Amino acid sequence: MPDACRHFIHPALIMKLCSEAIRSLFRNEGKHRGEATVEAVRLVSASVKLNDCQLHPDVVEVCLSLKFDEDLGKDESKEEKLKPKKNKRYQNRDVTKPSEKKKIKKELLSKARQEVHADLRAVSFTLDPKEKKMIQRETLAALFETYFRILKHSMNTSNSRYKATSVFPGGSHPLLAPCLEGLGKFSHLIDLDFMSELIACLKKLSGYTDHQGEIPPDNTLSVSERLQCCIVAFKVWRSNLEALNVDLQDFFVQFYNLILEYRPDRDHGEVLADALKTLLWEGKQQDMLRAAAFIKRLATFALSFGSTEAIAALITLRHLLQKNTKCRNMLENDAGGGSLSSLVAKYDPEAKDPYLSGALATVLWELSLLQKHHDETVSGMASNILSMANLNATQNPVQLSSSNPLEAYKDLSMGRELSKPTHKVSQTLKCKRKRRSKEFVALSTDVLEKADCTVGEDELREKLQSHFAVLRGISENERLRTELNHALSSINMYKEYKKQKKASKKSKKAAKA
């Protein structure tokens, strides 16, 4: 087998097998009592530190398979306070001192119990609750150490050398996406002492500025990564509502501006739909001015992009109108529409702050155009929203779908994939194209690493031998055909020469006679 094939096939296969092995290790903690899990997470943390966060995303993504007890993040002092206290009368009661024989007997019984417990612990794979909690806390500490190191590394956007040298998926910050996903999953286990620092870090990574004429910093993060920062901030906040007192208005402002920066051919629509669900769909009722600004921006967004993004935006828009009945005045396209009083008398579509946009002074004319959309799902949703203008404040239109923005985006994306026509090409036509084609495309290392290379060495050698044998046969056949054509043309020329010679002889004889 050639060295080039060995170099391109094995790394992707080894990476896939290693990832599956580590995930299996995390899922089956009963077989090793959790000790191997702690060691594996510590090795991942050491590898991230050693390579300066420039690793394949799968290195950190495997940690999403970890499982922790729900009460792991609770404070031990609170748990001790909740324990029932013993009666002081029984505690202070004088106990008669036991005799020497009874004392020796008790010591022997306690030693025997300890030996029995030690033997049972050695035979069984189950851990004591205290030991299990200690191991899980060590694992969690190593995991969050890795996550915070990745966040701090991502904040150093001035270091541009990774921008050019990074060959992993995710650009200059390949580990940021799985890190943010892990923080969102384990947000309820984060220590409260680090909450404010984490929120400040996420705000900086999202690219937030005060938008008061300040030039925005050179942010190397993509729009999808900045949206994920906003999502994680809200998940952390909702997981710790009782203890965390943080104003997330800045994240709403940043999300309001990131909607305009979204591009479907460059960014991930599923992340945007998740942001719509987390920031606008879930949680408490939005402020009227902020809700009106997002309603207007989502209507403009739905008119500008594809069906999947449009349906996620329209479902969120309808939800905001149901929660904020005063904003339904924006649905009236007559002279009185959009005349609700606000701080700003005129709508400013380029405003950076949703509170200063003046969206209540405008109307949702985009919905009239979306009624004529080529996709029936989008046009039906637009008509359903427009019907809210004729309803009372306490009434809601008939629900076309109870899905949230993320579910609607996934459903429509899957439906479009299934509805794509599949053109089958005959086998003979494929063979002809293979024989005629003389151009070869060099695949990048990223494509080769992502490919599932499960072909064995012997099977690959046989396929290569048969392939090149066919190529040699084709080239030999072409060479023989050219020689045959050359021989046939020579024979034809010789026959023509004989005919001309005979004709010249006859003409000479006729002239003599």
TrEMBL record:
One of its GO terms (cellular component) is nucleolus. Residues 75-101 are annotated as: Disordered. Pfam families: CBF. Residues 227-382 form the CCAAT-binding factor domain. GO terms for molecular function: chromatin binding. GO terms for biological process: DNA replication initiation. Residues 91-101 have a biased composition (Basic and acidic residues). Belongs to the CBF/MAK21 family. This is CCAAT-binding factor domain-containing protein.
